[in-house]
Amino acid sequence: QVQLVESGGGLVQAGGSLRLSCAASGRSISSYHLGWFRQGPGMDREFVAVAKGNSGAEWYADSVKGRFTVSRDFSKSTVYLQMDNLESGDTAVYYCAADGDRRWSLDAARYEYWGQGTQVTVSS
Q: Do 113 and 96 form a contact (C-beta atoms < 8 A)?
């Protein structure tokens, strides 16, 4: 079992920044892909970014590319999402998730473990 706990959400003005953290516990997750997803009001959950297992290589949704940066600290079993130049469309509950499959995916259904989510609200 893997437990994921997010922190760092809040209220920020458009153009501002926030940094989300997600701490994992329960077992070694170095080989797990750690993804960030978000769900806005009345919307489906969507992929934001992933830090791949073992390598930490990054992949982003087009909507956040150039504004968000995902990183992971293997020694702390923690993944981060640095969000800059935030827009009102970024308002959502943000979730981190862990996928133990060898091949990474954008599909939320592939991720086995989920955090409780943290609210990010961007005011215009």
A: no
**Buried-exposed string 39-66: b where 16+ CB fall within 10 A, e elsewhere:** eeeeeebebbbbbbbeeeeeebbeebee
Q: How many other C-beta atoms are found inside a 10 Å radius of the C-beta of residue 87?
A: 14
Q: Of 18, 79, 28, 8, which is closest to residue 50 (Cα–Cα)? A: 79
**Per-residue pLDDT band at 70 (split at 50, 70, 90):** very high
Tokens of 117: 């989510």
Report the C-alpha gap between 56 and 33 in whole angstroms: 8
Residue 27, pLDDT > 90, answer no
SS3 of 12, please? strand
Place of tokens 């968000």: 68
